[in-house]
Recover the amino acids of this structure.
């Protein structure tokens, strides 16, 4: 197991390195956008470019970029947006929004999804199961932005229950205040439908498979009630597969959803990314690319490792 | 006793052949043989939801293929007056549903403005008055059902001499009144009412046509306020006249000569019919540029489906080649190839799409560069599936037997192993289609790819982002594309599930 973990982590670093080099080179091959002169410290940006060696060969630039990240934790400054602010600071300022919205979403979705999935599995092939399965199919397939428009139209415009855009921090007091939560509800709803449906489908499939196992029959035979048998035997075995998925969701909250953040104006990391692409701020683009790639890689590894930790039967690496 | 049963010498002649003339073989099977595809089809047929989804997909495909050539409108059609017109289906003409009208609340001036449009040409803009009420300040408000097509009313048009003549001829031939007399306030350039073309009646305050409150006669009727003269053929107008014209020797003026030709006031509904040969009626309404959403949707769907099918088939071939190579050879080849595909799969797709757009969009266009982006990383999933299948099948005895008989690597791969994994791979390829459609619409919604530059192509994502600002006022702009893509995604997923169950019976219901 340890060997496997080490191997995976080494592979991860290799992948990370190759992707970073590729993206860096591809970005540097693009024409460098002129520094906008709009009420900000032009000299700082120019000095920064000088320091990063913008007129040196690309590989030297890459070396300087890596060096400044690892020695000074310096990811560069914004050139086209958040002018001359340090990229790391801006990212750290945006990240909480993304995390909070997604955290609320999965805190709501996971219990709901698990509950519906368990219910459907217990009622398998009855009408309740048919209804849930049909709804799951629909909710999994429909793109999240369609929910976003519907939620916006029904709850924000027609019923007027929620504000259209996210409350600003000064209005709401803090990220965790009730007012902030209310203004986040439309986004949370739009994010949650798909996740709930995903968990329901997964839980139902796993649990209904487990329920047919011989040991379930044995558990009932030896005198456990149905509830006891399900909670002590079936759920524990189904969880072997479901838990890694939950863990994956929790890492994924940092990435968030580009389109939902865009629609609801959440000033999170996804919105920052879209903006950096639209205004061609390559420093932000590069840093966020690394960020997103890293999240993807780390969650992949953590999910795989957690399978091994949770389920002793799975001996990974030996499959190949 | 025992000896009696023993026959020792039977003469040779006593033996004779049985069935000398007949061949002996097994009885032929009475049932017809069922092949792989036939078997799959039988299974697919019994899956009701998959069949429904399949039919839906066919309908959507037909919609995407048939509508653009047959529609009255094209995607470059833009009408400046029928902007944000509401969906209208001729089948629902008498019903308060899908009739191009909506419920509105208007104050008295607004109510009279809408009422006046219908009074002149007999085509009421107000379909129904639900009722009225007074607010605290004593102002009366009306709840109305307003036809979004009729509210356009009249417009001023500039016609060349020839156009002017033809239009008059058309009017004489058909007996349809297109020209209406110019308003006496025509040079005031009001903001409201299409440059004031709808103010054919006396206003309380002519300097502020934008408020539009009319002067009413003792019966509550509008008082006509047309430009008039004693010359019945002013500006060469010889065609039909509206009722009430020419009383007491006063003739209304229908056009005015200007530098380029004639300026006339026309009923836009009829003028549109004269120009295009049909009355404006948009099944799904129009967007803020006056484009027909129905046609745009079909063009967008065609684009999405074409892109998705291209991507799916290219990725299918690449994935099969790559996956079978690594799966068949295994070992070091597999390890290196697996690293490469791992790296490609780990790059977030948005990054790939963005970089391709930035580098290639100016050279080969946004669509091709998007296709490249999908192809660059899209095959990884297929390759992984093929690889797994190869690991499963390559150790089987029948493969070993074929190898012993001297079959080449290529023959082993494509003749013996690959057909066994076909079901899984085909299902995977079909399942990439909804994914591609979703991703493409998301990217164009976020303006990471911009198709706006070419007016011959639109995408569902572009349509969604067009409608985003009008969600409250004109939800139809966004809802039709949104519903369309939702149906598309649902039916492809259902169809894919049905296909999986049909092609790989062992995986039945694996995740549903």
């Amino acid at each position: 197991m340890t060997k496997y973990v080490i191997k995976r982590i080494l592979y991860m670093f290799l992948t990370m390195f190759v992707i970073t080099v590729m993206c860096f080179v591809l970005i540097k091959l693009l024409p460098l956008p002129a520094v906008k002169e709009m009420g900000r410290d032009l000299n700082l940006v120019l000095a920064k470019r000088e320091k990063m060696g913008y007129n040196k060969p690309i590989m030297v630039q890459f070396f300087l970029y890596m060096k400044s990240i690892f020695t000074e934790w310096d990811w560069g400054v914004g050139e086209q947006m958040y002018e001359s602010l340090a990229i790391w600071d801006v990212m750290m300022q945006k990240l909480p929004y993304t995390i909070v919205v997604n955290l609320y979403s999965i805190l709501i979705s996971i219990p709901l999804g698990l509950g519906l999935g368990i219910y459907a599995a217990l009622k398998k092939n009855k009408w309740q199961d048919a209804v849930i399965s049909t709804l799951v199919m629909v909710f999994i397939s429909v793109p999240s932005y369609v929910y976003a428009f519907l939620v916006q139209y029904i709850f924000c415009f027609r019923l007027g229950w929620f504000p259209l855009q996210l409350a600003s921090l000064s209005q709401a007091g803090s990220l965790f205040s009730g007012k902030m939560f209310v203004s986040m509800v439309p986004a949370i709803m739009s994010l949650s439908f798909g996740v709930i449906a995903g968990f329901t489908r997964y839980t139902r499939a796993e649990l209904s498979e487990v329920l047919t196992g011989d040991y379930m029959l044995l558990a009932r035979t030896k005198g456990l009630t149905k509830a006891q048998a399900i909670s002590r035997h079936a759920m524990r075995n189904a969880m072997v597969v479901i838990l890694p998925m939950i863990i994956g969701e929790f890492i994924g909250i940092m990435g968030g959803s580009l389109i939902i953040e865009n629609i609801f104006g959440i000033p999170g990391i996804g919105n920052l990314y879209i903006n950096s692409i639209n205004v061609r701020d390559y420093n932000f683009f590069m840093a966020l690319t690394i960020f997103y790639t890293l999240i993807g890689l780390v969650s992949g590894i953590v999910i795989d490792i957690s399978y091994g930790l949770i389920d002793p039967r799975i001996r990974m690496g030996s499959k190949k | 006793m025992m000896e009696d049963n023993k026959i020792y010498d039977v003469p040779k002649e006593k033996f004779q052949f049985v069935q000398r003339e007949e061949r002996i073989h097994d009885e032929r099977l009475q049932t017809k043989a069922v092949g792989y595809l036939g078997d799959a089809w039988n299974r697919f047929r019994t899956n009701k939801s998959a069949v429904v989804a399949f039919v839906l997909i066919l309908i959507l495909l037909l919609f995407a293929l048939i509508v653009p050539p047959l529609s009255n409108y094209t995607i470059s059609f833009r009408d400046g007056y029928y902007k944000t017109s509401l969906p209208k289906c001729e089948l629902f003409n008498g019903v308060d549903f899908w009739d191009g009208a909506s419920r509105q609340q208007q104050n008295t001036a607004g109510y009279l403005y809408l009422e006046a449009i219908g009074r002149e040409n007999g085509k009421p803009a107000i379909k129904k008055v639900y009722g009225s009420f007074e607010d605290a300040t004593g102002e009366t408000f009306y709840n109305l059902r307003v036809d979004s097509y009729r509210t356009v009313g009249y417009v001023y048009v500039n016609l060349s001499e020839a156009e002017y003549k033809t239009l008059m001829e058309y009017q004489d031939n058909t007996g349809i009144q297109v020209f209406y007399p110019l308003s006496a306030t025509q040079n005031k350039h009001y903001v409201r009412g299409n440059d004031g073309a709808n103010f054919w009646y006396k206003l309380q305050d002519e300097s502020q046509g934008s408020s539009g409150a009319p002067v009413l006669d003792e019966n509550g009727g509008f008082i006509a306020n047309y430009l008039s003269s004693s010359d019945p053929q002013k500006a060469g107008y010889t065609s039909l006249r509206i009722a009430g014209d020419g009383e007491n020797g006063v003739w209304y003026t229908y056009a005015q000569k200007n530098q380029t030709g004639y300026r006339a006031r026309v009923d836009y509904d009829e003028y549109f019919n004269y120009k295009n040969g049909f009355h404006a009626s948009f099944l799904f309404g129009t967007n803020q540029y006056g484009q027909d959403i129905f046609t745009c949707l079909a063009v967008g769907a065609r684009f999405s489906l074409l892109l998705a099918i291209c991507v799916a088939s290219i990725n299918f071939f690449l994935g099969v080649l790559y996956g079978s190579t690594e799966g068949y050879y295994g070992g070091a080849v597999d390890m290196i190839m697996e690293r490469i595909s791992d790296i490609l799969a780990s790059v977030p797709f948005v990054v790939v799409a963005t970089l391709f757009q930035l580098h290639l969009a100016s050279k080969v266009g946004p669509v091709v560069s998007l296709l490249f982006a999908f192809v660059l990383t899209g095959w990884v999933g297929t390759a992984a599936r093929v690889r797994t299948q190869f690991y499963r099948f390559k150790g089987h005895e029948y493969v070993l037997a074929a190898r012993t008989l001297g079959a080449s690597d290529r023959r082993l791969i494509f003749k013996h192993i690959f057909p066994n994994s076909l079901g899984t791979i085909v299902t995977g390829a079909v399942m990439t289609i909804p994914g591609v459609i979703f991703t493409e619409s998301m990217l164009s919604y976020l303006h990471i790819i911009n198709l706006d530059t070419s007016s011959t192509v639109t995408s569902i994502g572009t349509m969604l982002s067009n409608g985003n600002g009008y969600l409250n006022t004109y939800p139809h702009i966004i809802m039709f594309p949104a519903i369309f893509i939702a149906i598309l995604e649902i039916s492809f997923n259902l169809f894919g599930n049905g296909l999986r169950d049909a092609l790989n019976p062992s995986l039945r219901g694996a995740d549903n």
User: Anything to note?
Assistant: The mean pLDDT of chain B is 83.
